[in-house]
Amino acid sequence: MAKDTRTDSPWAGAKPRTDRPSKREREALAGRTPGARPRAERDVERRDARRDPPPPARDPRRSPTLHAGEPAPAREPASREQRLYGLNACLAAFARRPEALRKVYLTEARIGALKAVLAWCVQHRIGYRVVETADLDRLTASRHHEGVCFDLLRPDPPALAALLDAQPHAPEASLLLWLDGVGNPHNLGALLRSAAHFGVGGVIVPAQAGLDVSGAAARVAEGAAEAVPLVQAGDAQHALRELHARGYVLAATVPRDGSPLYSTALPRRLVFVLGAEGEGMSEAMIGSADLRLTIPGSGAIESLNVAASVAVLLGEYWRQSRA
Predict the structure, then answer these.
(1) Which residues lie below 8 Å from residue 278, measured CB to CB, with a gap of 6+?
(2) Residue 81 in 3-state DSSP?
(3) For the chain, which terminus, N or C, has the lower number of CB atoms within 10 Å?
(4) Contact, 299 vs 265, CB < 8 A?
(5) How far lies 323's CA from each of 7, 108, 215, 250, 269, in Å?
(6) Would you say 150 and 93 are in contact if contact means Cβ atoms under 8 Å apart?
(7) pLDDT of 256-309, one tens digit each?
(8) Helix (H, G, I), strand (E, B) or coil at 50
(9) 8 Å CB contact between 149 and 106
């Protein structure tokens, strides 16, 4: 049809109408990538357009996830990443090392509690996704994720010398833990929580044990894994010599025939040495200790588990050091 050039036409001066985006383009603008993707990493559409946007600083034109075609942040090798879950564990990691954050998964119920995290994600182009509870069950291999999961870069493991340099110098009081054969992540998380509560400077483990803070351990620790450094000692004998040189006394905890905990004056610079539940610590480790301690009890059972033992030992050290 010929263009209407009459000056009295109602269409005179009207701007040409732009083409309406296709369905695929509209999906891309809304942050939904056409096609199937793994359910655990699928974006969830907003069910109520009247809801407040999750992060306070969020640009309302942005989707909660990266736009289609937008380059995602470069992924680090899997070995350099760790997956944490549990609200307190994730918030503690974000508070201590926000620059390590690489991906956030959360349920809709956690949007309010994680507004600051989501605002950081928007500002720094970090991907985050609102997913269903079942998706988090699969991502974390646990039902105890509390509605949130973070992928982060692993922190650089501290060296023993750096840990000891950070402690009060002799003769000031200082308390450390040495774990010989402990491997259960729930026990590790529980004892880290007690260690943070009672001000332990750090936890030392033999490097060959391969013990690390897993997602399960971090969740049980409730944020304490960020406060108490875990150090792997490559050469146990060298580490023991270094501890002695810095004025520490090593106290092995044994189920029987040790000095009763509550009637023993505990040294101010002390390393509690604990073994795995069942097997206990190695004979070599017991032989290297300066002191043997036993937690008195009714005798109905042989001993407490390692996490409970740590709580009792640290509580008594705290009481004596402040008496």
Answers:
(1) none
(2) strand
(3) N
(4) no
(5) 98, 49, 37, 22, 16
(6) yes
(7) 889 999 999 999 999 999 987 666 688 888 888 999 999 999 989 888 999 999
(8) coil
(9) yes
